[in-house]
């Protein structure tokens, strides 16, 4: 099966999702109240994944660092609202959490999609991890897609790199855009 992958530098697709706060939001567009002009979209597997829980909690601890360089955060999974509500008991997040990512939306994002191993794991197909940093022009500046929960950007290194990218003195372009 051939999969579509988003390319660095291309426009982030227009996708809307529902948040736990019952708001409909557009992924890749920073919230006005955040004061940020970039957004980090974190696609996670769902409530059934303890590594996702740990990653989201670590990300919450670094939210202020991201805010200081103008980057808003949103996380989204294919979980239902009920599944996300129960997952919140394990999460200490301070950024919007969205749910209901459809398989069509997963395909648009180019993330890997997995089947549940059993009904105890979850009751739906789910996205494997993806991390997208969308710049103020609405283009993908950073793309990271994994086919399993064990491979994700180390957050301190990622934030250090984003700080470098956002510093105008570095004039750092979007990487990985060469064609051949």
Overall description:
It contains 5 helices and 9 strands; from the N terminus they run βββααβαβαββββα. It has 180 residues and is of the alpha+beta class. It has a single domain (16-168), classed as Glutaredoxin (3-Layer(aba) Sandwich), CATH 3.40.30. The protein has a 7-stranded mixed sheet. A two-stranded antiparallel sheet has the order 6-7. Residues 6-164 form the Thioredoxin domain. GO terms for molecular function: antioxidant activity; oxidoreductase activity. This is Thiol-disulfide oxidoreductase.
Quaternary class = single chain
- Count of DSSP E strands? 9
Label the structural class. alpha+beta
Strand arrangement across the biggest beta sheet? 2-1-5-4-3-8-9
Helicity level: 10-25%
In the CATH hierarchy, what is the architecture at level 2? 3-Layer(aba) Sandwich
Q: How would you sum up the major sheet?
A: 7 strands, mixed
Please tag this protein with its features.
alpha+beta; globular; Glutaredoxin; 180 residues
Topology:
Layout lengths: L15 E4 L4 E3 L11 E6 L6 H12 L1 H6 L2 E6 L4 H7 L9 E3 L3 H7 L3 E2 L11 E2 L2 E5 L5 E6 L9 H12 L14
Parallel strand pairs: 3-4, 4-5
Antiparallel strand pairs: 1-2, 1-5, 3-8, 6-7, 8-9
GO molecular function, one term: antioxidant activity
Pfam families: AhpC-TSA
InterPro entries: AhpC/TSA, Thioredoxin-like_sf, Thioredoxin_domain
What is the compact description of this entry?
By secondary structure, the chain is an alpha+beta fold.
